[in-house]
Amino acid sequence: MTDSPRAKDGRAPDVFRAGGWIPMRCHRDQDEVDFVIVGTGAGGGTLACKLAEAGFSVVALDAGHFWRPLEDFASDELHQQKLYWRSERITGGDDPVTLGSNNSGRSVGGSTVHFTMVSLRISPDRLKSRSRLGYALDWPIEPEEMWRYYAEVEDALKISGPVHYPWGPPRGRYPYRPHEVNAAGLVLARGCEKMGVAWAATPLATVSAPRGRAHPCVYRGFCAIGCSTNAKQSALVTWIPRAIAAGAEIRDLAMVGRIEIGRDGMATGVLYHREGEWRRQRARNVVVAGYAIETPRLLLNSACPMFPNGLANSSGIVGKYFMPQSNHAVWGTMEEEIRWYKGPPCMAICEHWNYTHAGKDFPGGYCFLSQGPLPMEWSHSVAGSRGLWGMELRQEMAKYNHYAGLKIVGEVLPQEKNRVELADEEDELGLRIPRVIFGYGEEDKKLYGHAIRFMRDCLDAAGGKDIWPEEDTAHLLGGCRMGTEPANSVTNADGRSWDIANLWICDGSLFPTSAGVNPSLTIQALACRIGDRIAAMASRGELSHPARAFA
Amino acid sequence: MSGEFQSRFPGYNVLDKWDSPSWNEQTRRVIKDRLENVPERRFFSEQEWTTLHAICARLIPQPDRADAPVPIVPFIDKKLHNNEGDGYRFETMPPMREAWQRGIAAVDAECRVRHGTAFAELPDNLKDATLRAIQHGDVRSETWRDLPAKKFFEIMLRQIVSIYYAHPAAWTEIGFGGPASPRGYVRLGFDRRDPWEASEAHD
Amino acid sequence: MLQREHNPASPSRFTEEVSRQYATEGIARAAPLTLPPQPPLPEAKAARKIGAAVLIGAVTALAGLALWRALGRTATQQPAEAHQRAAQRLNASAAILSFSVFADSAMEHYRGAFQNPAMYVAPLTSGALLASSAHAAFRPERLGFAGKSLCAFALAIGTAGFGFHLYNLTKREGGIDWLNLFYGAPIGAPFALALAGLTGLAASRLVGQTGATPVFFGEPAGRAIAAASAAALIGTAGEASLMHFRGAFHDPFMFAPVTIPVVSAAGLAATLFRPRMIATARRLLQATVALGLAGVGFHLYGISRNMGGFGNLSQNLLNGPPLPAPPSFTGVALAGLAGLELLDA
Fold first, then answer.
1. Could you say which of B166, B183, B197 has the minimum Cβ distance to residue A77?
2. Quick check: C111 and B195 CB within 8 A?
3. Which CATH architecture has domain A30-541?
4. Using a CB-CB distance cutoff of 8 angstroms, which residues of chain C are in contact with residue A190?
5. Who is most buried in A187, A214, A254, C83, counting CB within 10 A?
6. Own/partner pairs for B59-63, CB < 8 Å, 24+ apart?
7. Digit-coded pLDDT (tens) for B85-110
8. What ipTM was estimated for this complex?
9. Any idea where the domains of chain A sit in the sequence?
C-alpha cells in the first residue's frame, strides 16, 4: 500500500488496467472552482460526475486511496481492511453501533468499493410514510421523481436484476439479466415458497455479462472486501472514470478538516490535509458527501464565530435523527452442502414485508436477503454473537460449508436522541473525533422481533437445523436530514443547506427515514437528482441566492 | 472444552492452489508475508505475552498442531504496536492499547483472586472456568471496576478469531475455497462443487 | 448538544495550526485555468473490436466457403447426382449438429458433474453419431443398418432429453421462470440431437434413389427438408435469443444469430411457394453457414473478455459463451441447402 497520492500531476489511475493511467484535468489550490466535493462515494462520486458532465469545474476530495482493483485487491479479509474507515470513533448509547468494516469506506469510491451491491428502490409508499402509512415523516421529493432517478442509476450501473420484479409498481427492465442464484440464495427461495411469499434474484450492481472493460462476475464471493474482477459497478469504476473524463479532478488521500466561511456568511472553500500539509481549495460551492458520520462531524468541526454551533445548524439538528438499519439474522445448518462463499453474498431477496402491511405490529418495513459471510466475518458471528470458543468454536466453524442464513435490512425510525456529536478527543490531524449514540425504539424492536420470527420459520421450512439468531446493524443514515421546514431539517430537497446558500449535502445523511432497503441506490439517485437540480438552478442564475427563496 | 479436532476435508489444503488461477500475485504476496514474517514482540511485556498466549491456547486450542500452531499473539502485538484500530471504540472502554494491557492484567488478577496464581499456571479446566466467568461478567477482581469484563472478553475473542480465521490452515480446516481471483467458481447450486474446491468426507 | 463542544474560544490543535498557515484572509477569484495538454482517452478499443470482429467474420466465411466447395459443386440436372449430393449435405449437417451436441453436452453435463447417469447418454450418442455421419458425409452409400439405427436412436434420445430438461426445470426453485430458463437445463438443446438423427435418416432415404424423389411426410423430400430446416432455424435462433438476452445483448454482434437465421428461414420457407426464391434462399443459407462458424470466433473473443481470459479456461470455458453452440446454425443451414439442392434438381 502506498501512502502518497496517485491522482495528481495531470493524471489519475486507470482502474481497468494494472499500472495504467488516464489523463485528469488538475486545478491549482488558489483557483476558485465551481464545486469542491468532500467524499467520492455513492453521493460525492455520483455528483462529481453529474456536475462535471453539466460543465461545472469540480474538485472532489477523498481521505482514502485511489485503487486499481485488478492489482491492489487481494483475496484476503485481513489485508482488505484497508478499504474501511478505521480512524477512531466512539460508539455508545443503549445499543452501540458496531462501526468500521460493515458500514464505512475510506477509498475513492467510498463504501461502494466493498458494498454487497444490493440495489433496491424504496417503495413509493415508504417515501411518503407519514401521509400514506401514518408514521415517521415524508421525504420532500415525489416518489415518481425518485423512481425516474432510480432508473437512471440502474442504467448507469447496468444493474443485473430479475426480468420481472415481484413487488411494487411496475419498473422498467433491469439493464442486465439476473445472475444464477447460488445455493445460499436457493435456501431463501425454498423457504419463501414454503411460506407462501414471493422471492426474487437480488438486483445487483455486478455485471452478469461483459461491460466495456469490466469483466463479468466470476462468483468469487469476496465482494464485501473489494472486487478484483471489476465486475462490481462501484463508484470507483463507474462514476469516477466518467467524472474524470468530463473534466472533474479527484484528489485521493485528501482529508478535509474544515469548511471555510467568508465574511458574507458563505462558504469559500475547504481546508484539507494532503501530503503532510494543510492546504486550501477555494470553491464557489462546497458539497459535503462524507456519509452519516463524517458529514455531521465536518459541519460541527467547522464551527466558527459566525456559526458557533457548526455550519448549517441553526435548527440544532445537525447530527441528530441518525439511523442505522437493523441487520438481524438467523443462521442454521442444512443437510446439503451450501458453500456460501461462492457468488455475491446476497443473491436472493424477499421484500414482502416492505410492501405488505397485514400481519405486522410495527409501522416500518424490512427486506431479507440470503447471506454468504467469509470465514473471518463468520467467526465474528459464531464467536462474537453466539459466544462460542475453544474446540466447540472450531467444530462449529467446520460446518461452514453447510450453513445458510437470512438477514434483514430493517427500517429504524428516526429519533432525535440518536445522534452523531463531537467527542473531546482529537485524531492525529487534530480534528475532534465523532461520538455515535444509538438506541432502538419500541417500534424498531417489534420490527426485528417480527423479522427474526418470520425468518426462523422460513429457514426452518427450507430445511435449516439448529437455527440461532444474531443482532447487528448496517448502513448509517440521517444526521443531516432534508425537509421542507428550516426548523426541523438541515437542507431542502436539493441537499442545499437552509443556512448557507452555497453549502450542499449529498449522501445518506440526507435521509429523513431509513426505509427497509439497502441505501446505496437511493443515495446515487439523490445525487443524480441534486446534480440535475443544480444545473437547472445555474441556468436560471439561482445558484448564488439563499436556498430559502426556493423552498 | 478439549477434545480432538476432526477434519471434514481430508487431503484438502488451500495452499495447494498457490500456483493455480485461483491465486493472483497480490494475494500470494499478502499470504506469503503472513506465513513467513511472523512479527516479533514489540508491544506487550513478557508477562502479557505469556498470559495472552495461554488465553489463546484455550480460546483457539490447537492440539492437532502441537509443533506448529497458527500464530495469533504476534499479530495482536503488531496491531497494537502500530495502533491500528478497527474504526470504533465502545464508550465504556478505554483506548485500544490501554484496554488490552489492563484486560490481560485483569485476567491474571481474576485468577489470583480465585485460585491464587496467574492464568498461565492454572490447569486447563480452571482456565476455562475463569474465562467463562469473565465472558459472562461474573468477576471478582477489583481490576475490572472500570473495565467491563464482558466487553473486554468479547473484543479479545473477536480479535483472536479474526487472526486465526485469516490463516490458510483455518481455511483448509473448514473447507473454505480460499483465495479466488482471477478464477472464481462455476458450480453454485446445492451440493455442487468445482474440481478446485474441498471435497467433504461422508461417513 | 453541549454548547461547550462548539465553543470557538477553546481552539483545538487543528484550528491553531490552520490559523498559523492561513493568517491572511481574502478570497481570490480564479485565474483562468491553464490545462496541461490532454492526451486522447483510450477510446480506440471500439474500433479495434469491430476490426477484430470483421476479421474473424471474414476468415470464417472463407472457411465456410471452402467447406461448401468440398461438399459438392452447384446443382446439376441429374436426379441421382442431386440425391447423392443432398445426402452428402445432410450427413454433413448431421455431423456438424452432432459435433455441436457432443461438445456442448459433454461440457455442460460435466458442469453438472454427471449427477444422473443418464447425463452420459447425450455425449455418447452424439459422439457416435458424429463419427458415423462424418463418415457418411463422404460416402453416404456406406451408411448401413447400424448407422440408420443410430440415427433413429439419436432422434429418440433427443426427444427424451427434452423431457428430462423440462423436468429439471420444473423441480428447481421458481419452476419455469426466466431464471431457470437462463440457468437451468436448456430446453432447446436436446432438439439439436433429435435433429441430427432426423437429418441422418433423411440422408439414408435419399441414397441410391435413381428415380423419383422420395416422399417424406407426404411431401417431396426437397420440400419436406426445406420446411423442416426452416423450422429448425427458427428454433435454434430462439435458443440463441434466449441466451443472448441473458447476456443482455451487450455487444451489437449478438443480434446477428437472432436475425440472419430468421431471415434465412423466411427465405427457405418462401421457396416452397415461389421456386424463383431458391437462389436468394441459397445465399441466405450460405450466410447462415458462415455465421455459425463466425460465432465460434465471436465466442472465443467473449471468453477472452472474461476475467483471466484464456489463462482461466477451467472457469471461462464453462461460464463464458459456449464455443460449440454456434456451429449448430451451420448444421441446420446445411440441411436447408440440401433441401434446396433437391428442389432445384
1. B166
2. no
3. 3-Layer(bba) Sandwich (3.50)
4. 173
5. A187
6. B59/A389, B59/A390, B59/A393, B59/B131, B59/B156, B59/B157, B59/B160, B59/B161, B60/A389, B60/A390, B60/A393, B60/A394, B60/B160, B60/B161, B60/B164, B61/A390, B61/A391, B61/A394, B61/B1, B61/B2, B63/B2, B63/B4, B63/B5
7. 999 999 999 999 999 999 999 999 99
8. 0.97
9. 30-541
